[in-house]
Amino acid sequence: MQNVKERRTCDHRCLCLCLQDHIKIENEDNKVQPQKVHMKASSTSSLLLLWSIIFFCFPAQRAAAFQAGVFPAKIYPGDAFMVRVSGLKGATAPSALLNKRALSFSNCGRGCFVAVAAVDLNSGPRTYQVSLRAGKQKRVLRLRVLKGRFQTIHLTLPEEKVSPCVEDLERIKKEADLLQSIWEIDSERLWEGDFVLPLGNPLSTPFGTNRVINNETTSVHRGMDIRGTDGEEIHASNRGLVVLTEELFFGGNTVVVDHGRGIFTVYMHLSDFNVSPGDIIEKDAVIGYVGSTGRSSGPHLHFGAKVAGINTNPISLTRLKF
Fold it and tell me: pTM score, two decimals?
């Protein structure tokens, strides 16, 4: 391949030199007296030869290509995924759409940008398209969502926790509005490296589990429960800004951490807090302690994640490699 390139370069140079010599000879053969220059057919020929020189000696440059991919390429409903773009010229971030929703990119190095997104728990199994644009270049990436399989469990809880009174319903609505206002925040990236689990204990209830409470009410578990003992330390999944430390009706003592670019982690049922709103915390920092506050049947940690407003399987977030 190298010899072919060298031969092409040599041919171009030889052609250029030959054309230049031809023009020089032609000009000498067609010399005219000063101030008596006339248009001749040879002038047109010379112009054509000049354009040939430009075409062969200065070939058009192709637009610089970039690399882009979806990781992982196959996921389940409720999972997070990542779009990575590299090899870009300049500091302008690309743009991308999934189901008409814009992805939020952050810088991951020179000419490199990454966006974290998720698909809803109710997403059906099929191939989705991510429409990517970088400058004037466009590309379509494909994401395969597989069929989800979620288990069903039965729980027994006090009736007041299952069927709230009017006052509790008003409180629940206010708390839902508060949380919704938090999920709409799109701040600068704060997370560093991979996300980690806040406890190293086994799971008790996975993400997406259908819960039948008191043999009547059915709800979908949009987080994951991790076993724990009263007072056990809970660690931050990644670097971020604490935006909420509050006692909620369902979640009990709850901490919400904003990691930037629409990514949040949620820690519920704590016995006590170790952080306050406005704190910038590092990955693995102690944010609170295991408890059983709120709608809970025993000491454990409910660990949740939100990505661009979508309830996301926290396990899938920890599997992304930055």
Answer: 0.80
